[in-house]
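lol forgot to send this yesterday, sorry. struct tokens for the thing we talked abt
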């Protein structure tokens, strides 16, 4: 039986902690986990830069680089897993990609590291690959990522630059040549060609393709000459798409790969390199580590606002001035012109307010929901909302689903429809439907119906839905079905359509069957429980119970199971968070190419959303409400 006092204390404490986690700027910046992969790539970029630039650099910048390198190496040595390998976060299990990058970094001639660490990491790689032979390493990297060269080729490039593939020039033949010359082609033509390298990886396509051409130019004299002739144009393109911050996508790994590649190809004093170096140095943490990205400020802030709204209006927790400030900040961060990097039309939002952010569907949906939840719907808000809705409609795929960045034209996951993003967009569309221009409502209704059909088709036979941007390292195929299923259920509950009940029921049944014996949830059945995943499941169950108040189409036994599951999950949250006072984040977040991260705010935000919604459920059943 749920202890009401413990529940109330946890709800109030978690709300208060989330409010206190707001930055001085008035929004929720959060803190991304330190990343061994980011740290390794940053160290190599700084090392190659300082070696190649020699006397051309001022001493102050050189000292900054060397200090960051030393601190970074020390952090890597101190955060090696007990098995000798490295995971993407300090909580992650060892994986081949990150371990091989750290191995190359610590073994680089310019990096002085302990022999103990080297021996341990050598042993891990030997047990994983069977050999440290360059050809076997190359095959292992390419096998892990298949046709997706956006991460495998950068890894091989770093291994080549640090001498891990051999010392002779011929080793570069093991690195696939990226067609960097295509960056000079109009992006519409790239779209038509259906290339396996998508727009977000354009900086890597250019820089890594260029360094491969530098060390191992094509044996075809025509191709070789053609590439040589467009080098200046390609470099101008690279400079044009670099944001003011210097960091491509605000990402340390991507920026580091660009810097190390250009520096090694004799472009060490190029403006792109200098700005990239300053970005890397700026993001270095005091302990010597680097995160994968600057922050997720817009994503965290909209998630927080919407979590508050899951029970009460944000005005009860944020005063009028705070709401107005947040509303203004969100509006200011909507794209108002064609994006210089991704060529996205105006109207969308990205994940952060920093200049390297790119508009995407998930963040746009979150922004639209938060604007409604902040209350005042004036002319400026309505205009922004209408533009955001139109932007989302414009990227809807033919199958009815919603991709991440642009309408699907490639073979990458970010171009394909995905249930969790589609559900988030559906929720936003439904919430704003009545405010949409009456003349355009048939278009929006058609988009909604099309997405609902996609959601129906994408449900697994067991009742679950997968997620793209969230996973679980211990789940089958690392897929997080709890996140995907919970998010889809929230969207379907917002649609008044009795034909959806059977799909919702199947999703709810999957959640019931996937609950662990301790009362919590992991990414899939049998996976260790986490605060984030348990909160998501409780939120979805409570929401389903609220929207299906009488549950007339569900037998009595299942009604009891629903309530018991939601309450058991809540009890697990109360116990694990010590009544809302302790929140340990779990690495369930996925960045590009399955790069794991955890965010300090996720467990607090998801807990607040879940407990707020459960409080509504209890109040509708004539229980006490906070």
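and heres what i got for the seq, position by position
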């Amino acid at each position: 039986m749920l202890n009401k006092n413990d529940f109330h204390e946890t709800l109030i404490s978690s709300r208060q902690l989330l409010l206190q986690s707001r930055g001085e700027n008035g929004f929720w910046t959060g803190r991304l986990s330190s990343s061994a992969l980011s740290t390794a790539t940053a160290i190599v970029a700084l090392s190659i830069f300082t070696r190649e630039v020699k006397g051309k650099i001022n001493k102050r910048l050189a000292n900054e680089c060397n200090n960051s390198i030393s601190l970074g190496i020390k952090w890597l040595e101190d955060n090696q897993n007990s098995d000798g390998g490295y995971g993407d976060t300090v909580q992650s299990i060892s994986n081949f990609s990150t371990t091989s990058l750290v191995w190359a970094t610590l073994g680089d001639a310019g990096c002085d590291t302990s022999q103990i660490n080297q021996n341990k990491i050598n042993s891990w790689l030997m047990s994983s690959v069977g050999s440290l032979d360059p050809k076997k390493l190359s095959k292992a990297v390419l096998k892990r990522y298949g046709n997706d060269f956006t991460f495998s080729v950068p890894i091989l490039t770093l291994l080549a630059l640090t001498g891990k593939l051999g010392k002779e020039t011929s080793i570069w033949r093991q690195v696939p040549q990226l067609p960097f010359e295509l960056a000079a082609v109009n992006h519409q033509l790239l779209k038509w060609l259906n290339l396996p390298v998508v727009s977000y990886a354009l900086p890597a396509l250019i820089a890594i393709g260029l360094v491969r051409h530098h060390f191992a130019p094509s044996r075809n004299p025509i191709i070789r000459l053609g590439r040589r002739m467009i080098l200046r144009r390609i470099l101008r393109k690279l400079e044009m798409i670099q944001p003011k911050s210097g960091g491509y996508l605000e990402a340390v790994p991507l920026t580091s790969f660009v810097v190390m590649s250009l520096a090694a190809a004799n472009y060490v004093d190029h403006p792109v390199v200098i700005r990239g170096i300053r970005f890397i140095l700026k993001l270095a943490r005091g302990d010597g580590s680097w995160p994968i990205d600057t922050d997720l400020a817009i994503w965290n802030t909209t998630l927080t606002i919407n979590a508050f709204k899951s029970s009460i209006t944000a005005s009860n927790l944020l005063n009028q001035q705070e709401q107005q400030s947040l509303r203004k900040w969100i509006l200011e961060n909507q794209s108002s012109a064609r994006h210089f990097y991704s060529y996205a039309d105006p109207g969308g939002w990205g994940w952060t307010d920093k200049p390297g952010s790119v508009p995407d569907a998930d963040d746009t949906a979150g922004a639209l929901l938060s604007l409604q939840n902040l209350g005042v719907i004036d002319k400026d808000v309505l205009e922004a909302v209408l533009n955001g809705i139109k932007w989302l409609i414009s990227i809807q795929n033919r199958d009815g689903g919603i991709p991440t960045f642009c309408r699907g034209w490639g073979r990458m996951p970010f171009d394909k429809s995905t249930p969790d993003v589609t559900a988030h967009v559906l929720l936003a569309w439904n919430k704003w439907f009545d405010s949409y221009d009456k003349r355009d409502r048939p278009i929006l209704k058609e988009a909604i119906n099309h997405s609902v059909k996609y959601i129906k088709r994408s449900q697994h036979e067991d009742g679950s839905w997968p997620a793209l941007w969230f996973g679980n390292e211990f789940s089958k195929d690392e897929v997080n079905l709890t996140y995907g299923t919970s998010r889809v259920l929230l969207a379907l509950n917002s649609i008044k359509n009795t034909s959806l009940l059977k799909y919702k029921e199947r999703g709810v049944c999957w959640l019931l069957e996937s609950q662990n014996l301790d009362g919590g949830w992991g990414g899939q059945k049998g996976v260790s429980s986490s605060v984030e995943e348990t909160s998501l499941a409780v939120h979805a169950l409570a929401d389903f119970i609220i929207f299906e108040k009488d549950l007339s189409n569900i037998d009595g036994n299942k009604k009891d199971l629903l309530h018991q599951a939601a309450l058991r999950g809540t009890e697990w949250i109360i116990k694990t968070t010590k009544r809302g006072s302790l929140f340990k984040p779990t690495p369930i977040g996925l960045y590009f190419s399955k790069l794991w991260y955890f965010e300090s705010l996720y467990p607090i935000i998801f807990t607040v959303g879940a407990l707020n919604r459960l409080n509504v459920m209890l109040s509708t059943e004539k229980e006490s409400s906070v």
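The mean pLDDT is 90. anyway ping me if u want another try
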